Amino acid sequence: MTKFLTIQEAMAKGKGSVSVRGWVYRERGSAKVKFVVLRDGTDILQCVIKPDVVGADAFEIADKLQVEASIELHGTIKKDERAPTGFELQVEKFAVIGPSDKFPITKDQSPEFLLDKRHLALRSRKLQAVLKVKAKVMQAWREFYDKQGFLEYTPPIFQPSQCEGGSTLFEVKYYKTKTYLTQSWQLYGEAGTFSYEKLYCLSPCFRAETSKTSRHLSEFWMAEMEQAWLELPGMLDSIEGVLKHMVKRVLEDCQDALQVLGRDVKKIEPSLKKPFVRMKYKDCLKLLEKDGITVKWGKDLRTVEEDKIMEHFDVPVIVTHYPKEAMAFYKPPIEEGGKEVCLCVDVLAPEGYGEIVGGSQRSLDIERMTKELKAMGEDPKAYDWYFDLRRYGSVPHSGYGLGVERVVAWLCGLENIKDAIPFPRTMLRWTP
Asked: Does residue 104 lie within any of the structural domains?
């Protein structure tokens, strides 16, 4: 049987006979020569088809090839600086595996049209490059925590209660009753830490947010960790460590993808080489005040305020100690300067990419959490199983969630988070 090489392998070979296969990425030609730029999962390669080599009948077939036809080619590869990737294949024979009609995606089409045709738009080199970076980010997450002795843990997707606010729950019919799609693994991750102590997951999450911004998805992937005996300072080190590892692995292994995306790696490199900035919520308010922006104490930071803060920094900023009144019921408060602040954290990405991480030390105070749930209109009885975690051998523990698509959008320099996921789901889009 013929041994086919990937385009990347063929170019690494550099010269001699090779067999490759893929899809027509570009095509042009005349009566004397046909140029086909072949695309596969690794790269592109210019292929030259001549009638005096392949024969008149075969050349006539080649002349009718359209974009996205799938083909196998056999010939001789050599260096050619004029070719798009510096190599050229002189084709000796070829076979059309799957012909293509006129491909509906061309230049200068609207974002909405490209989303309607997402099943075909995924073939673009841009989205292919993003998928490579995303896979590397997820791989780096697992590498980092595997080396520290964490276990990968699989939480339920159907969950009976909220942990991030009831207004963003997706209700689901569940046999003769109802339940909800997960907003986060957190409550179930906490349960697991009292067994093994150190756990992580990569899981889809769902938020029924009515936002239509370039930063929000209704379905997204979250990388989350939870660890027993871990308090806020140690968790901040863990967050910085895994983000640096992600940046390192993307810079090492995704140079070609970043080049396709036109990403300026000099904007990413400081996040690997320099320490992250760490500041408290109150310090953010002081910085904003200097910029002429007044934020009332107790208000969460909005996008416009986060963006203004990040104008001062070229590395992620780790923001801690937000006011208790703006935080979820499970985030424990402490008193600082006569005000209640939480042992919690958000991480803001450079270049205006906003929040990419959120987490906290976890509250152990059943009585206080019960009062806060009642104030939110929640029935504390639905959380009795969660309170059991505090009744039977509780210990200090902490955890956080990292928005995979948000990190990918930052590392790839994407204008819209919709391009960080193969099939985006938003307030207005649930197909194809």
From this structure: no
Q: What percent of the chain has pLDDT over 70?
A: 100
DSSP 252: H
Both 82 and 211 in one domain: the answer is: no
CA dist., res. 1 & res. 40, Å (int): 20
Residue 107 maps to a domain: no
Res 164: pLDDT: 79
Do the beta carbons of residue 261 and residue 129 sit within 8 Å? yes
Q: Do 38 and 126 lie in a common domain? A: no
Domain coverage including residue 145: 118-420
| Alpha carbon separation from 1 to 19, 96, 197, 345 (Å, rounded) | 11, 18, 51, 57
Q: What are the backbone angles phi and psi of residue 326, rounded to the nearest 5°?
A: -100, 0
Total number of domains constituting the chain: 2
pTM of the model: 0.95
- Phi then psi for 58, rounded to 5 degrees? -65, -40
Question: How far, rounded to the nearest angstrom, does the alpha carbon of residue 313 sit from its chain's CA centroid?
Answer: 22
- Grouping H, G, I as helix, E, B as strand and the rest as coil, residue 322 is coil
The residue to which tokens 């036109």 are assigned: 262
Cα angle 84, 88, 91 (rounded to 5 degrees) comes to: 135
Task: List the CATH number of the domain containing 11.
Answer: 2.40.50.140
Evaluate if residue 212 carries a pLDDT over 90.
no
**Radius of gyration from C-alpha coordinates of the chain:** 26
Say yes or no: 124 and 91 in one domain: no
Q: What is the pLDDT of residue 210?
A: 84
Distant-in-sequence, close-in-space partners of 236: CB < 8 Å, separation ≥ 6: 278, 318, 320, 345
Q: What is the mean pLDDT of residues 369-397?
A: 95
Each residue's pLDDT tens digit, 173-204: 999 999 999 999 999 999 999 999 999 999 99
- Would you say residue 306 lies in a domain? yes
